[in-house]
Amino acid sequence: MRILMLNYEYPPLGGGGSNACKYILKEFAKKNLEVDLVTSSPANTFETEKMGSTISIYKLPINKKDIHYWTQREIITYRLKAHSFIKNFLKHSISSLLRRGYDPLPRGCAADGGLEYKITCSILCH
Prior knowledge:
Layout (H helix, E strand, L loop, with lengths): L1 E5 L10 H14 L3 E8 L5 E5 L3 E7 L10 H19 L5 E2 L6 H8 L15
Parallel strand pairs: 1-2, 1-5, 2-4
Antiparallel strand pairs: 3-4
Helix pairs in contact: 2-3
C-alpha cells in the first residue's frame, strides 16, 4: 500500500497538525509503509527529501515570508500547487490517500483532487 499525505506546514513548527503528522510518519516508517508527503517549502524552489527508505517528502515552493505566520496568499498558493502536483502524481500509481483533517482548506481542497481519480479519503486524525 502506498499512502499520500498532505500537510502544508511540515516539518512541525510547534504543536498541532504538523506535529501529529511527524509522529504518524514515524509510525509508518517503522512499518515500512511507502509514504509520500506533499508539503510546502519557504524557498522558491521545489525540493525533495527522504526519511528512511520508504518515505518521500515533496516540498512545493510558496515563497513564504514568515515561517511562523501564514497569509491567505501562501495558503492559496499551497492549495493550488498541491492540487496540480497531486493530479500529476496520481497518474503514477498511488493506491491510497491519507488526508489528515482539521485545517480543511489547505489540505482538504488539495486532497479532493484525488476524488477525480476515485481515491478514497478514509483516514482522518488529529
